[in-house]
Design goal:
Structural class: alpha/beta
Strand order of the largest sheet: 2-1-3-5
Strand content: 5-15%
Number of strands: 9
Helix content: 25-40%
CATH architecture of one domain: Alpha-Beta Complex
Mean pLDDT: 85
Largest sheet: 4 strands, mixed
Membrane topology: Single-pass type II membrane protein
Pfam family, one: Branch
Number of helices: 12
Order of helices and strands: HHHHEHEHEEHEHHHEHEEEH
Subcellular location: Membrane
Keywords: Glycoprotein, Glycosyltransferase, Membrane, Transferase, Transmembrane, Transmembrane helix
InterPro entries: BC10-like (IPR044174), Glyco_trans_14 (IPR003406)
Distance between the termini: 143 Å
CATH topology of one domain: Spore Coat Polysaccharide Biosynthesis Protein SpsA, Chain A
Length: 395
């Protein structure tokens, strides 16, 4: 009996002690879990820290070994100043260097951007953009230097040469760093118009360029800069020939595949050498309707540089064209190319007679001045031209 009582009392004591033992066990488990969680969190933090440091190290090492990248026109004409603030000057300031890394599609797209408001919110001095289409060298650069001297701020210069040509003009030259990114050009093919559109696009990046004159390396100016600037700026028309010429060299070059965009009655012919205002320049670079037709169907003996711009602009802006060129050329000798004049041809009488024309219209009135430029001149003509220019040409 006593033994049973003792067993019962011991059972009571064991039952009383079990809740306490259970609480101690739960606390130990909780403490262990907390420490395990802390260790895991610490491990994650360390892992994340090592990853971040590794990424930055890789980026740093990669940047150190990257080759230098040439600045693009987009960066040169950035919408932000060096503090990252948008300013008006950042929109209107032209690039110091015309070189860039844009391809033709990017360049044409960028050049087609134009403000819609007529009034400029800053003092804008309209400039003449002279665009030289050349194989490379500019044999008459000294003559043009004389022509431009003293008229800074009223002109811009852009030169398109063959891709492998490298100019060597000094810093003091007006042609220094004025060669634009170029591509190969074939006479009479669409690549010629591509080069002209490339020149226009580069010139349009300067918001102050208002008139665009296309000349070649064999062209010379026939008047002083002030006269030419006034003549072009005061004209109500752009100067591009656009003639409906019958015969094999006119309508005979039309192809039926041009329809329906271009009909035979709309087909026009004109000189490759032109002067257009900013509105028409934008019209040329933004065209995607007529360009594919001319590229596919106008191939020699259809010379696209004589038909593409004259046809397109006469269809959309006929009243804006003077329907003549400003560049005199002698075709009297016949053949596919005009006459070339060398040193023996350059006399005072010859130069005085060049600007003369039987009849032309300027602002819808009869004018005695019809040509401002002339071609085609051989490099040997430079020396006598430099001697006679101050007296005869008015430089």
């Amino acid at each position: 009996m006593k033994a049973m009582v003792v067993e019962m009392e011991e059972g009571v004591k064991d039952n009383a002690a079990s809740p306490l033992k259970s609480r101690l066990t739960n606390q130990s488990r909780a403490l262990f879990s907390m420490r395990l969680l802390q260790i895991l969190l610490l491990f994650l933090v360390l892992t994340l820290g090592i990853s971040v440091v590794g990424i930055h190290t890789i980026k740093f090492l990669r940047i150190q070994h990257l080759p230098p990248v040439a600045p693009t026109t987009t960066t040169l004409i950035s919408n932000y100043d060096h503090h990252g603030t948008v300013t008006l000057e950042s929109f209107i300031k032209p690039p110091l260097n015309v070189w860039h890394t844009m391809n033709d599609s990017e360049l044409l797209w960028r050049a087609s951007m134009e403000p819609r408001r007529i009034v400029y919110p800053f003092k804008r001095v309209p400039k003449l953009a002279f665009m030289f289409l050349t194989k490379g060298p500019l044999p008459f650069a000294p003559l043009w230097e004389m022509f431009f001297k003293g008229h800074e701020g009223l002109y811009s210069i852009y030169v398109h040469a063959l891709p492998d040509y490298r100019s060597d003009f000094s810093r003091s030259s007006v042609f220094y760093k004025r060669y634009v990114p170029s591509q190969a050009v074939a006479w009479g093919e669409m690549s010629m118009c591509d080069a002209e559109r490339r020149l226009l696009s580069n010139a349009l990046l300067d918001i102050s360029n208002e008139w665009f004159v296309l000349v070649s390396e064999s062209c010379i100016p026939l008047r002083g800069f002030s006269f030419i600037y006034g003549y072009v700026s005061e004209s109500r028309h752009s100067f591009m020939g656009s003639i409906d010429e019958e015969g094999p060299d006119g309508r005979g070059r039309y192809r039926d595949g041009m329809e329906p965009e271009i009909s035979l009655s709309q087909w026009r012919k004109g000189s490759q050498w032109f002067e257009v205002n900013r509105k028409l320049a934008v019209e040329i670079v933004q065209d995607t309707t007529y360009y594919p037709k001319f590229k596919e169907f106008c191939k020699p003996p259809c010379y696209v540089d004589e038909h593409y711009f004259p046809t397109m602009l006469s269809m959309k802006h006929r009243v804006s064209l003077a329907n003549r060129t400003l560049t005199w050329t002698d075709w009297s000798r016949g053949g596919a190319h005009p006459a070339t004049f060398d040193k023996a041809d350059i006399t005072e009488t010859f130069l005085k007679n060049l600007p003369e024309a039987k009849a032309c219209s300027y602002n819808d009135e009869r004018s005695q001045v019809c040509y401002l430029f002339a071609r085609k001149f051989a490099p040997s003509a430079l020396e006598p031209l430099l001697q006679l220019a101050p007296k005869v040409l008015g430089f």
